[in-house]
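cron nightly-structures :: item 1 of 1
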Amino acid sequence: MADRAADFPEKTWMIYVDENGNKHRTSYSAFIDYARRIASFMVQQGIGRGMRVAVADHNHSDVIAAYFACWLMGATAVPLNMSEDNARITYILRNSESMLVLARTQYLQRIRECAAALAEEYENVNINIVNVDTNSVESEFRRWVTACKSFPFPERADDMLTDECLIVYTSGTTGNPKGVVLMQQNLIADGMAIAAWHGITAETRMMCILPVHHVNGTVVTHVTPFIAGSSVVLNRKFSAGSFFAAIAEEHVNIVSVVPTILALLLESQHHRNNVIYQQLSHIICGAGPLTCELADRFESRFGIRIVHGYGLSETTCYSCFLPVDLSLAEHRSWMQEYGFPSIGVALPCNEMAIHDERGHALPEGERGEIVARGLNIMKGYFKNEQANTDAFAHGWFHTGDEGFFRCDESGRPFFFITGRLKELIIRGGVNIAPLEIDEVINKAPGVKAGICVGFEHTIYGEEVGALVVPIDSSSDEKSILQFCSSQLPYFKTPKVVLFADELPVTSTGKYQRTRVRHLFAQFKDVQIKRG
């Protein structure tokens, strides 16, 4: 941070676009000074190196400043996805042992309810909650922070490389979410690799439309441009109607998206113009299932190249990308000719391979589990020894995703993802654990037994459905959907219900969700409206 403050003091670091389209520009020096003062404020609140700070907010420049403040002082940021229900947020606050929550006004009441629930259950829990809303000139938080002195830069930043800096909670296939612990060296390694791969320099401008409570929004479009000394346009929300206009107006060169965004842009009636063609280098796309068909439609209509990639929170963000210097013919071949669009070649900061269930490397073309190891691999799951033992078996991180690789003429392996060995549903780039939804479905009226099924969807990559064995002929779809909607956030709620005589299970009684995905194929192109 000290280097950026010295090298680019007056250069624009961030342009924040709020929900009304108003733009707020911040220089490197102003942003860094603000982050340093937040760090000092947190020290006054009792936070020190190695402690955890939860952030209850939405896309906002203040969130990024809070993250950087944590990293400057050696604390760990714990982003909260406020679209989740209180039970999950309460669990994260407890599991992460967060001592301080920085919450925007609209989330204060919910955070207080979660903290109260913890205090009632655990005598030793005492969470400090601070309103960090700065939208008003009368902002109390702004006054507090302004009154603080700038936190000093560390004398030796290298001493902090192994400090934990981010815990991102990601859905698992069973039980509670797991906290992915990332160190500062993870973020730096992945950020530097992403910058080098995509040619991101001090002259580049990136745009963020993805949520910053996720590693994609944090690492690709904030950590990476900060390392490169470039600028970023941070949007409060994605809007298909203003997407291309924002790129043109702010001279954006690279945007990171998920496949859902591509589908929504195709659905819209807006078109890119010649300005876009001249200045936009390419679009980064990952964090969800991209089909050959969707990629072909997008690239054919807009003439914008998709640089497809792959990674997980556990790998900091991205592990691999398609090369950006492929010829048009080569690019199209890797995107279209193998049944799946290639996720590309491993970044130099990590190795990738395809292993069988015994940890043996598999040859070209043979399907197995995608594994990785390197500087961008997480420290581990927070307070979850069994999950860590399973995840790092045979000396590699096991992604739980199935794939294969093909080599180009020089012998360079290009990887492909074919599905998931684990049963996570990825809707619009967000991981959803099936068992959580199963529990709700089975409590719904008229349900004898039921499971949720992730099925292919044109807009969201995957959507949530329910396969139900009814109690009798009086069971109906509407009442089941209404019950689920009352118990789950919208993105986790089943959108359709199909009835069956029995549920598919293995000989040991495990559900086989993939066997019934085809039953929902009729809903692939249906855009289901919120009820």
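cron nightly-structures :: done
The longest strand covers residues 397-407.
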